[in-house]
Amino acid sequence: QTGNYAQAAHANGKLGNMTAVEYRTEFSMWAILASPMIVTTPLLDCATGTCVPRLTDLQREILLNAEVLAINQDATPAGRLLWPAEAGAQGLHAYGRNLSDGS
């Protein structure tokens, strides 16, 4: 349950081997909830003595998304659960956050 921890990362239901949509959604949720954006993936591979970028295209797309990072860094309070509803075995939830520009 989100809200019981200092960061949304503790709310993960699945680790690794997610789809591109799941990775984008997870990072976007961290932004909405104003979670600390601490990335621990190696950015460079220096094993051969020459450092080369190690990020995949998907990682680069997600981590460098200026729009998502701007939401995370906005001065307004963290987002919150707006609408919970149960739908069979899966719970549906809507999260949101008012930003300082009124959006």
TrEMBL record:
Segments passing through the bilayer: none
Keywords: Glycosidase, Hydrolase
GO molecular function per UniProt: hydrolase activity, hydrolyzing O-glycosyl compounds
Keyword Hydrolase among record annotations: yes
Any Gene Ontology biological process: carbohydrate metabolic process
Domain of life: Eukaryota
Gene3D superfamilies: Aldolase class I (3.20.20.70)
Family: Belongs to the glycosyl hydrolase 27 family.
Record's protein name: Alpha-galactosidase
Species this protein is from: Zooxanthella nutricula
